Amino acid sequence: MNIGVIGTGNIGTEHIRRLAGHVSGARPGAVFDVDTERAGAIAAAVGASVHREAHDVIDDPAVDAVLIASPGDTHAELVLACIAADKPVLCEKPLATTSGAALKVVEAEAAHGRRLVQVGFMRRYDPGYLQVKSVLDSGQIGEALMLHCVHRNPSVPPTFTTDMTLTDSVVHEIDVTRWLLDQEIVATTVLGGRQSPLAADGLRDPKLVLLETDAGVLVDVEIFVNARYGYDVRCELVGATGTVTLDTPSTGTVTRNGGRAQPIHPDWQERFSQAYVDELQAWVAGLARGVTGGPSVWDGYAATAVAEACISSRGTRTTVDLADRPSLYRSTP
Ligand SMILES: NC(=O)C1=CN([C@@H]2O[C@H](COP(=O)(O)OP(=O)(O)OC[C@H]3O[C@@H](n4cnc5c(N)ncnc54)[C@H](O)[C@@H]3O)[C@@H](O)[C@H]2O)C=CC1
Ligand SMILES: O=C1[C@@H](O)[C@H](O)[C@@H](O)[C@H](O)[C@H]1O
């Protein structure tokens, strides 16, 4: 499979390297980035060609499938072009930054009649989250009652906005909640509270997000993107007869001088490195069989709709109103 990649920043470059060296059955064949120097550097490193426009990648007959890793507000338009060209696409999260834009993608793919799009919610491929899901599904802890989540980033670039803490960061917990519980989120309340002195001017950080599902499960998420000490993503799912916990993986405990240190990952690149490879490998394996699975545009739309309600909340309970779910998305492949 010859993969065309649009966006060669942080994650785009890493995905290209993974496609070149860690995913069987695929190679990065063509790339585009508005930053032509950046695109040229990674293309030269992996032997890919550089295109002049994003649409040249999508329309390139030698490109079997497209991977979109440009900023979130560019995604919906590019995914629509892939659907129009009948080309499979893995689109990094978020599918879109507004629910209206995401819904247009849902409608376009539903009208197309078969799935072409996978959304990059890679936590569904993380061995830790998979274990949490398998414990819940096995019935060992009874029915799910509550989910507690922590999502801490050491820092964010100056371009990162308060809205992005919800659309770019909490969107992962929104997807994890829907996937783990197989329930829709119907309401949210977001509280600001005391702010970090280390947050950039105008950035509301940290925040507490409360999500309510259609089955009444309550989910709390601490989002804190200036935690400084490292990358810390955890959760505890509380069931009727027990709990299952996903801890921050340690990278090697050092015991010395009367003390014990447990290093943790510096950022998402290291923490989820295996999940990204497994996500890409599953996508490519599906492509070879002519099947697109994994998180769908419905999942992308629902997640963006919830994130949008979080943005509107500002301390008050805000409901989430989803459109009707097309039959294409009623069963997960
Ligand atoms: N699944 C995950 O855990 C992660 C997902 N992401 C997602 O990946 C996307 C990219 O994030 P980063 O790589 O961190 O950002 P980045 O800012 O490092 O890279 C974005 C790249 O896109 C390029 N670009 C901007 N406009 C473009 C356009 N119209 N067409 C083509 N290229 C364009 C920029 O020049 C830059 O090289 C975002 O949607 C983000 O939410 C990012 C990090 C982790
Ligand atoms: O997707 C990601 C980033 O875009 C986002 O900015 C971070 O907060 C997340 O931890 C990371 O997984």
TrEMBL record:
MF GO annotations: inositol 2-dehydrogenase (NAD+) activity; nucleotide binding
Catalytic activities: myo-inositol + NAD(+) = scyllo-inosose + NADH + H(+)
Nucleus in keyword set: no
InterPro entries in UniProt: Gfo-Idh-MocA_inositol_DH (IPR050424), Gfo/Idh/MocA-like_OxRdtase_C (IPR004104), Gfo/Idh/MocA-like_OxRdtase_N (IPR000683), MI/DCI_dehydrogenase (IPR023794), NAD(P)-bd_dom_sf (IPR036291)
Keyword set, alphabetical order: NAD, Oxidoreductase
Domain Gfo/Idh/MocA-like oxidoreductase C-terminal, first and last residues per copy: 133-322
Sequence intervals crossing the membrane: none
GO process annotations (BP): inositol catabolic process
EC number: 1.1.1.18
Every Gfo/Idh/MocA-like oxidoreductase N-terminal domain range: 1-121
Pfam family for this entry, one: GFO_IDH_MocA
Function: Involved in the oxidation of myo-inositol (MI) to 2-keto-myo-inositol (2KMI or 2-inosose).
Family: Belongs to the Gfo/Idh/MocA family.
Record text on subunit structure and interactions: Homotetramer.
Protein name: Inositol 2-dehydrogenase
Name of the gene: iolG_2
